[in-house]
């Protein structure tokens, strides 16, 4: 599995920690940066990863900013990206089973690195539940805001 990962400055240390963990677990990791710890804008990094996830250049994404909220907003602007902000393993499991989330978003200032590893493990190992959940995913994919505006 090819995993893209990026952060802003608030998620920089967690990103490095998770890259080490993921490589040790045998995952193919693509690091989108930033390469040095300095203040950066999360949309610049989140958009690169979300675009590559949207165009199938990577299989899953992990995005980290201070709270995870900003990266979630950025990632979910892209077609076929279903980013879930998770701060515990249960949310990561449900995001995969119910929503087939393909991007995990973490708050670097909210959770500890060890907990982040557990959340990542659950997120990557959990399979999508399909069934009624697939029907809902298909409905999401068909949403056209322009059409709703005209109704």
From TrEMBL:
<dbReference type="InterPro" id="IPR003500">
    <property type="entry name" value="RpiB_LacA_LacB"/>
</dbReference>
<dbReference type="GO" id="GO:0004751">
    <property type="term" value="F:ribose-5-phosphate isomerase activity"/>
</dbReference>
<dbReference type="Pfam" id="PF02502">
    <property type="entry name" value="LacAB_rpiB"/>
</dbReference>
<dbReference type="GO" id="GO:0009052">
    <property type="term" value="P:pentose-phosphate shunt, non-oxidative branch"/>
</dbReference>
<keyword id="KW-0413">Isomerase</keyword>
<feature type="binding site">
    <location>
        <position position="99"/>
    </location>
    <ligand>
        <name>D-ribulose 5-phosphate</name>
    </ligand>
</feature>
<feature type="binding site">
    <location>
        <position position="109"/>
    </location>
    <ligand>
        <name>D-ribulose 5-phosphate</name>
    </ligand>
</feature>
<dbReference type="InterPro" id="IPR004785">
    <property type="entry name" value="RpiB"/>
</dbReference>
<feature type="binding site">
    <location>
        <begin position="66"/>
        <end position="70"/>
    </location>
    <ligand>
        <name>D-ribulose 5-phosphate</name>
    </ligand>
</feature>
<feature type="binding site">
    <location>
        <position position="136"/>
    </location>
    <ligand>
        <name>D-ribulose 5-phosphate</name>
    </ligand>
</feature>
<feature type="binding site">
    <location>
        <position position="132"/>
    </location>
    <ligand>
        <name>D-ribulose 5-phosphate</name>
    </ligand>
</feature>
<feature type="active site" description="Proton donor">
    <location>
        <position position="98"/>
    </location>
</feature>
<feature type="active site" description="Proton acceptor">
    <location>
        <position position="65"/>
    </location>
</feature>
<dbReference type="InterPro" id="IPR036569">
    <property type="entry name" value="RpiB_LacA_LacB_sf"/>
</dbReference>
<protein>
    <submittedName>
        <fullName>Ribose-5-phosphate isomerase B</fullName>
        <ecNumber>5.3.1.6</ecNumber>
    </submittedName>
</protein>
<dbReference type="GO" id="GO:0019316">
    <property type="term" value="P:D-allose catabolic process"/>
</dbReference>
<comment type="similarity">
    <text>Belongs to the LacAB/RpiB family.</text>
</comment>
<feature type="binding site">
    <location>
        <begin position="8"/>
        <end position="9"/>
    </location>
    <ligand>
        <name>D-ribulose 5-phosphate</name>
    </ligand>
</feature>
């Amino acid at each position: 599995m090819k995993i893209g990962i990026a952060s802003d400055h608030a998620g920089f240390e967690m990103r490095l920690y998770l890259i080490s963990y993921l490589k040790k677990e045998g995952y193919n990791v693509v690091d989108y940066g930033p390469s040095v710890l300095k203040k950066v804008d999360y949309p610049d990094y989140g958009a690169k990863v979300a675009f590559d996830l949207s165009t199938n250049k990577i299989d899953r994404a992990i995005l980290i900013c201070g709270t995870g909220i900003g990266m979630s907003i950025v990632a979910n602007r892209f077609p076929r990206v279903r980013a879930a902000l998770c701060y515990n393993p249960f949310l990561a499991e449900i995001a995969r089973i119910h929503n087939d989330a393909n991007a995990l978003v973490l708050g670097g200032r909210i959770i500890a690195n060890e907990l982040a590893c557990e959340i990542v493990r659950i997120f990557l190992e959990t399979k999508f539940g399909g069934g009624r959940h697939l029907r809902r995913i298909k409905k999401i994919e068909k949403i056209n805001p322009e059409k709703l505006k005209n109704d």
